[in-house]
Amino acid sequence: MLNSLSGRFLILTTIFVMLAEVLIFVPSVARFREDYLLDRLERAQIASLALLADDMIAPELEAELLANAEVFNVVLRRDNVRELVLSSPMPSEIADTFDLRDPSAFILIRDALVRLADSQNRIIRVIGAPSREAGELIEVTMESLPLRAAMIDYGLRILVLSAVISVVTAFLLFLAVRVLLVKPIKGVVGHMQAYALAPEDARRVIKPSASVRELREAEEALQALQTQLTQSLRQKERLAQLGGAVARVSHDLRNILTSAQLFTDRIEMSEDPAVQRLAPKLVNSITRAVSLCESTLAFGKAEEPSPVLTLFNLANLANEVLEAERLAIGEAEVSLSEDVPANLVMRGDPEQIYRILSNLVRNARQAIVATGKPGEICLSARAEDSAWVITVSDTGPGLPPKAREHLFQPFQGGSRKGGAGLGLAIVAELVRGHGGTLRLLSSDGEGTVFEIRLPMGDAG
């Protein structure tokens, strides 16, 4: 109960209402004290009028008038003459004097709190203005203990009434909160739990129905999120099925194309001019198809193996990558250069680093060759305080906007017509396996620059 929203709201409402009543309680008690004393002054004035009407009254009647007014003495000032109208023996001297003719709210509240705190029975003097202008001043003496008892009784009644009002108000608000807030929120939670059991089932997507604007906005946002998630799950499921099928087809197709590649070696030896003209194109097509199948199979693996970290010379590895690419350049006007210190030794998996650099350099070479213009590719590296930084830059045409938008996503980030977009996805996965990052620093009409940062230390 206390951990629920409605339960906490019930408790907080009760506390706040009681706090408001306490803030009202002190001025109320002060007002009650003022009314109590003014009532005693009015009673005393009425008793004095009886004496003024008949100067000769019996001592018993005088005592009865004072007892009815609950005072000891009554003093009237009329026509600038102060006169003791009624009097009786006082048990002790006057302890305090209170003037009610024009008191401030602060003085009334202060005197009320002092009287509540004082449990001694004292004789007090009260001064006020006579009602109906029956004189200039009226003054009485009385005991303070009956006043304190009346104030405590009034205060207790106020507190009990406040408690009842607080409980009733809190209970009504409790019911309102349960109906207007808690019930709709529980409905949303129930929809979320039901959706979590089968997020691919579109029937479980919430349908906004709340009448409260904020809750309806929350339901609409949840509906949009669930709809998007359901569509994403369906798309991923289809892609997973498609990936499995493509991997199987690519495996068999690679074997078939490998066999076809062997036959093309003999076709190239033919002396037929037409065959000699078409054979290189056939060889290139088959080679590209084999490469695509191998890339698909490589990405279709459950995951890349964890890198086997060893120390190796990066300059030697970079030379191997560039030499392999020089063989593939052929007659194209693409120059390769490196800027790697000869003594730069780094820690990583040499085979995976080779694949990383080979993919980036190959992509750059293919982009330049596709333009038919000369270009340059530069592979550079340096050691910083906490990381090895490798940069692959080219003077090619740059990546198109679609390729930059889905740069490291498989089957979506391809920049070359006929490409599968797997190269950069594989590179990004291998770099992450080393705990590093792969970033595209720039790509425009003047070329493209990729940066690889591999940390020197172990993961903290």
TrEMBL record:
Q: Which domain of life is it from?
A: Bacteria
**Alphabetical keyword list:** ATP-binding, Coiled coil, Kinase, Membrane, Nucleotide-binding, Phosphoprotein, Transferase, Transmembrane, Transmembrane helix, Two-component regulatory system
Q: What EC numbers are recorded for this enzyme?
A: 2.7.13.3
Q: According to the UniProt record, what class of enzyme is this?
A: transferase
Molecular-function GO term, any one: ATP binding
Domain (Histidine kinase): give its ranges: 248-458
The transmembrane residues are 6-30, 158-181
List the residue ranges forming a coiled coil, or say none.
215-242
**InterPro entries (alphabetical):** HATPase_C_sf, HATPase_dom, His_kinase_dom, HisK_dim/P_dom, HisK_dim/P_sf, Sig_transdc_His_kin-like_C
Catalytic reactions of this protein:
ATP + protein L-histidine = ADP + protein N-phospho-L-histidine
The name this protein goes by in its record: histidine kinase
State the organism of origin.
Answer: Thetidibacter halocola
